[in-house]
Protein backbone atom coordinates (compact mmCIF):
# COMPACT_ATOMS: atom_id res chain seq x y z
CA UNK A 1 0.00 0.00 0.00
CA UNK A 2 1.30 3.41 -1.08
CA UNK A 3 1.62 5.98 1.67
CA UNK A 4 2.17 9.71 1.36
CA UNK A 5 5.05 11.45 3.10
CA UNK A 6 4.75 12.19 6.77
CA UNK A 7 4.73 15.72 8.07
CA UNK A 8 8.21 17.17 7.57
CA UNK A 9 9.13 14.63 4.85
CA UNK A 10 9.38 14.91 1.04
CA UNK A 11 9.12 12.45 -1.84
CA UNK A 12 10.61 12.62 -5.33
CA UNK A 13 8.60 13.19 -8.47
CA UNK A 14 9.20 10.68 -11.28
CA UNK A 15 9.21 13.43 -13.93
CA UNK A 16 10.98 16.16 -11.96
CA UNK A 17 14.12 16.17 -9.82
CA UNK A 18 12.57 18.65 -7.38
CA UNK A 19 11.07 17.07 -4.23
CA UNK A 20 7.38 17.37 -3.39
CA UNK A 21 6.93 18.32 0.27
CA UNK A 22 3.96 17.91 2.52
CA UNK A 23 2.16 21.30 2.81
CA UNK A 24 1.88 20.94 6.57
CA UNK A 25 5.65 20.61 6.78
CA UNK A 26 6.08 23.85 4.82
CA UNK A 27 3.66 25.55 7.18
CA UNK A 28 5.64 24.32 10.19
CA UNK A 29 8.84 25.71 8.68
CA UNK A 30 7.22 29.09 8.13
CA UNK A 31 6.04 29.31 11.71
CA UNK A 32 9.51 28.37 12.95
CA UNK A 33 11.23 31.02 10.85
CA UNK A 34 8.81 33.76 11.81
CA UNK A 35 8.98 33.09 15.52
CA UNK A 36 12.48 31.79 16.32
CA UNK A 37 16.04 32.72 15.35
CA UNK A 38 17.68 30.11 13.14
CA UNK A 39 21.30 29.21 13.91
CA UNK A 40 21.64 27.50 10.51
CA UNK A 41 21.62 30.83 8.64
CA UNK A 42 24.93 31.74 7.01
CA UNK A 43 25.94 35.32 7.89
CA UNK A 44 26.12 37.76 4.98
CA UNK A 45 27.55 40.53 7.15
CA UNK A 46 26.88 42.83 10.09
CA UNK A 47 26.46 46.47 9.14
CA UNK A 48 26.20 49.72 11.07
CA UNK A 49 23.85 52.31 9.62
CA UNK A 50 23.31 55.88 10.78
CA UNK A 51 20.31 57.97 9.74
CA UNK A 52 19.25 61.47 10.75
CA UNK A 53 15.96 61.74 12.62
CA UNK A 54 13.04 62.60 10.33
CA UNK A 55 14.62 61.02 7.25
CA UNK A 56 13.82 57.65 5.70
CA UNK A 57 16.09 54.61 5.70
CA UNK A 58 16.11 51.59 3.37
CA UNK A 59 17.72 48.31 4.48
CA UNK A 60 18.38 45.56 1.95
CA UNK A 61 18.46 41.77 2.21
CA UNK A 62 21.14 39.36 0.97
CA UNK A 63 20.95 39.45 -2.87
CA UNK A 64 19.95 35.84 -3.44
CA UNK A 65 17.90 34.50 -6.34
CA UNK A 66 15.14 31.88 -6.11
CA UNK A 67 14.02 33.07 -2.68
CA UNK A 68 11.36 30.93 -1.04
CA UNK A 69 10.98 32.90 2.18
CA UNK A 70 12.08 36.28 3.59
CA UNK A 71 11.75 37.39 7.22
CA UNK A 72 12.64 40.72 8.79
CA UNK A 73 13.20 40.45 12.55
CA UNK A 74 13.28 43.84 14.23
CA UNK A 75 14.30 44.67 17.80
CA UNK A 76 13.82 48.43 18.26
CA UNK A 77 15.14 50.43 21.18
CA UNK A 78 11.62 51.22 22.37
CA UNK A 79 8.72 48.76 22.23
CA UNK A 80 8.62 45.03 21.61
CA UNK A 81 10.08 43.11 18.67
CA UNK A 82 8.24 42.91 15.36
CA UNK A 83 8.47 40.75 12.23
CA UNK A 84 7.69 41.10 8.54
CA UNK A 85 7.53 37.91 6.51
CA UNK A 86 6.95 36.81 2.92
CA UNK A 87 6.40 33.30 1.47
CA UNK A 88 6.89 32.78 -2.24
CA UNK A 89 4.84 29.59 -2.53
CA UNK A 90 1.73 31.39 -1.23
CA UNK A 91 2.67 34.89 -2.42
CA UNK A 92 1.67 36.01 1.05
CA UNK A 93 3.02 38.60 3.47
CA UNK A 94 2.68 38.65 7.23
CA UNK A 95 3.43 41.31 9.86
CA UNK A 96 3.44 41.11 13.64
CA UNK A 97 3.62 44.12 15.98
CA UNK A 98 5.25 46.40 13.38
CA UNK A 99 4.28 50.06 13.23
CA UNK A 100 2.98 51.64 10.04
CA UNK A 101 6.31 53.43 9.58
CA UNK A 102 7.98 50.08 8.77
CA UNK A 103 7.04 48.29 5.55
CA UNK A 104 8.33 46.72 2.37
CA UNK A 105 9.99 49.30 0.11
CA UNK A 106 8.88 47.42 -3.01
CA UNK A 107 6.92 44.25 -3.74
CA UNK A 108 8.65 41.62 -1.59
CA UNK A 109 8.59 39.05 -4.40
CA UNK A 110 10.77 41.43 -6.45
CA UNK A 111 12.87 43.16 -3.78
CA UNK A 112 12.39 42.44 -0.05
CA UNK A 113 14.07 45.67 1.12
CA UNK A 114 12.67 47.26 4.29
CA UNK A 115 11.80 50.96 4.44
CA UNK A 116 11.59 52.95 7.69
CA UNK A 117 9.76 56.23 7.08
CA UNK A 118 10.17 59.34 9.25
CA UNK A 119 12.85 57.75 11.43
CA UNK A 120 12.56 58.45 15.15
CA UNK A 121 14.88 57.77 18.08
CA UNK A 122 12.62 54.85 19.02
CA UNK A 123 13.54 53.09 15.73
CA UNK A 124 17.12 52.64 16.88
CA UNK A 125 18.01 48.96 17.30
CA UNK A 126 18.82 45.75 15.44
CA UNK A 127 17.30 44.71 12.10
CA UNK A 128 17.87 41.22 10.72
CA UNK A 129 16.86 40.02 7.25
CA UNK A 130 16.72 36.23 6.90
CA UNK A 131 16.47 34.73 3.43
CA UNK A 132 15.67 31.12 2.53
CA UNK A 133 16.62 30.27 -1.05
CA UNK A 134 17.62 27.30 -3.17
CA UNK A 135 21.24 28.34 -2.52
CA UNK A 136 20.83 28.02 1.23
CA UNK A 137 19.88 30.21 4.18
CA UNK A 138 21.40 33.67 4.64
CA UNK A 139 20.98 36.69 6.87
CA UNK A 140 22.20 40.27 7.20
CA UNK A 141 22.18 42.18 10.49
CA UNK A 142 21.95 45.96 10.72
CA UNK A 143 22.69 48.04 13.82
CA UNK A 144 20.66 51.21 13.23
CA UNK A 145 21.76 54.41 14.97
CA UNK A 146 19.58 57.53 14.86
CA UNK A 147 21.33 60.92 14.73
CA UNK A 148 19.70 64.04 16.15
CA UNK A 149 21.30 67.34 15.06
CA UNK A 150 21.68 69.75 18.00
CA UNK A 151 20.17 73.24 18.08
CA UNK A 152 22.88 75.90 18.31
CA UNK A 153 22.26 78.71 20.83
CA UNK A 154 24.77 81.54 21.36
CA UNK A 155 24.41 84.33 23.93
CA UNK A 156 26.29 86.56 26.42
CA UNK A 157 26.17 85.64 30.08
CA UNK A 158 25.86 88.05 33.02
CA UNK A 159 29.61 88.74 32.93
CA UNK A 160 29.80 89.42 29.21
CA UNK A 161 31.23 86.02 28.32
CA UNK A 162 29.94 84.32 25.17
CA UNK A 163 28.16 81.04 25.91
CA UNK A 164 27.54 78.44 23.21
CA UNK A 165 25.01 75.64 23.62
CA UNK A 166 24.48 72.61 21.40
CA UNK A 167 21.03 71.62 22.60
CA UNK A 168 19.59 68.08 22.53
CA UNK A 169 21.95 66.41 20.07
CA UNK A 170 22.56 62.70 19.63
CA UNK A 171 25.33 61.83 20.05
CA UNK A 172 26.79 64.71 22.06
CA UNK A 173 28.19 67.48 19.86
CA UNK A 174 31.68 68.96 20.09
CA UNK A 175 32.05 72.71 20.64
CA UNK A 176 35.10 74.78 19.70
CA UNK A 177 35.87 78.50 19.35
CA UNK A 178 37.58 80.28 16.47
CA UNK A 179 39.90 82.18 18.85
CA UNK A 180 42.15 80.74 21.52
CA UNK A 181 40.37 80.62 24.83
CA UNK A 182 39.99 78.76 28.07
CA UNK A 183 36.78 76.75 28.20
CA UNK A 184 35.45 73.56 29.74
CA UNK A 185 32.34 72.09 28.10
CA UNK A 186 29.58 70.79 30.32
CA UNK A 187 27.17 68.02 29.29
CA UNK A 188 23.59 67.39 30.37
CA UNK A 189 21.87 64.14 29.37
CA UNK A 190 18.15 63.87 28.63
CA UNK A 191 15.72 60.97 29.03
CA UNK A 192 15.37 60.43 25.27
CA UNK A 193 19.10 59.83 24.82
CA UNK A 194 20.00 63.31 23.57
CA UNK A 195 22.69 65.46 25.18
CA UNK A 196 23.05 69.24 25.62
CA UNK A 197 26.62 70.57 25.61
CA UNK A 198 27.39 74.02 27.06
CA UNK A 199 30.69 75.89 26.59
CA UNK A 200 31.63 79.31 27.97
CA UNK A 201 34.27 81.35 26.13
CA UNK A 202 36.88 83.01 28.35
CA UNK A 203 39.36 85.00 26.22
CA UNK A 204 43.04 85.20 27.09
CA UNK A 205 42.97 88.78 25.84
CA UNK A 206 40.57 91.41 27.18
CA UNK A 207 40.42 93.01 23.69
CA UNK A 208 38.43 90.13 22.19
CA UNK A 209 34.85 91.12 21.39
CA UNK A 210 33.77 89.13 18.29
CA UNK A 211 33.75 85.38 18.85
CA UNK A 212 32.60 82.46 16.74
CA UNK A 213 31.33 79.14 18.07
CA UNK A 214 31.70 75.95 15.99
CA UNK A 215 29.50 72.91 16.66
CA UNK A 216 30.70 69.62 15.14
CA UNK A 217 28.23 66.75 14.84
CA UNK A 218 27.80 63.63 12.64
CA UNK A 219 24.47 65.03 11.40
CA UNK A 220 26.13 68.27 10.23
CA UNK A 221 28.30 71.14 11.44
CA UNK A 222 27.11 74.61 12.45
CA UNK A 223 28.67 77.93 13.45
CA UNK A 224 27.56 81.33 14.69
CA UNK A 225 29.21 84.55 15.85
CA UNK A 226 28.40 87.03 18.58
CA UNK A 227 29.75 90.30 19.97
CA UNK A 228 29.66 90.78 23.73
CA UNK A 229 30.75 94.41 24.12
CA UNK A 230 30.94 95.91 27.60
CA UNK A 231 30.68 99.68 27.99
CA UNK A 232 29.84 102.03 30.82
CA UNK A 233 26.28 103.21 30.96
CA UNK A 234 22.87 102.77 32.43
CA UNK A 235 21.27 99.38 32.69
CA UNK A 236 17.57 99.33 31.84
CA UNK A 237 15.41 99.35 34.92
CA UNK A 238 13.31 96.53 33.56
CA UNK A 239 16.18 94.18 34.32
CA UNK A 240 16.72 95.45 37.87
CA UNK A 241 20.50 95.40 37.44
CA UNK A 242 23.33 97.71 38.49
CA UNK A 243 23.86 101.05 36.67
CA UNK A 244 27.53 100.37 35.91
CA UNK A 245 27.65 98.69 32.52
CA UNK A 246 25.89 97.62 29.34
CA UNK A 247 26.83 94.61 27.19
CA UNK A 248 25.85 94.66 23.55
CA UNK A 249 25.39 91.42 21.64
CA UNK A 250 25.02 91.01 17.91
CA UNK A 251 21.98 88.80 18.24
CA UNK A 252 19.98 90.73 20.82
CA UNK A 253 20.91 94.35 20.04
CA UNK A 254 21.36 95.77 23.56
CA UNK A 255 21.54 93.24 26.36
CA UNK A 256 21.98 94.49 29.91
CA UNK A 257 24.23 92.67 32.36
CA UNK A 258 25.43 93.86 35.77
CA UNK A 259 29.02 92.65 35.91
CA UNK A 260 30.62 92.88 32.44
TrEMBL record:
SMART domains: IG. GO terms for molecular function: signaling receptor activity. It is a single-pass membrane protein. GO terms for cellular component: external side of plasma membrane. GO terms for biological process: regulation of neuroinflammatory response. Residues 39-145 form the Ig-like domain. Its main location: membrane. InterPro entries: CD200R (IPR040012), Ig-like_dom (IPR007110), Ig-like_dom_sf (IPR036179), Ig-like_fold (IPR013783), Ig_sub (IPR003599), Ig_V-set (IPR013106). Pfam families: V-set. It comes from the Eukaryota. Signal peptide: none annotated. Residues 1-20 are annotated as: Disordered. It is found in: Membrane. Keywords: Disulfide bond, Glycoprotein, Membrane, Transmembrane, Transmembrane helix. Belongs to the CD200R family. This is Ig-like domain-containing protein.
Amino acid sequence: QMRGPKSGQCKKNKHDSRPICNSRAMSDIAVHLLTRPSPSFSPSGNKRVSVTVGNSSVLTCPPKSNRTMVTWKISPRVGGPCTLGYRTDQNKTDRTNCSDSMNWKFRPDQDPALEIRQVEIAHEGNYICEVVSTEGNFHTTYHLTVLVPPRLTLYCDDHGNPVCEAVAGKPAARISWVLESSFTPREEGHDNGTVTVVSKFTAYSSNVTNTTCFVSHPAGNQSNSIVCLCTGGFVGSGFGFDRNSICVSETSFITDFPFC
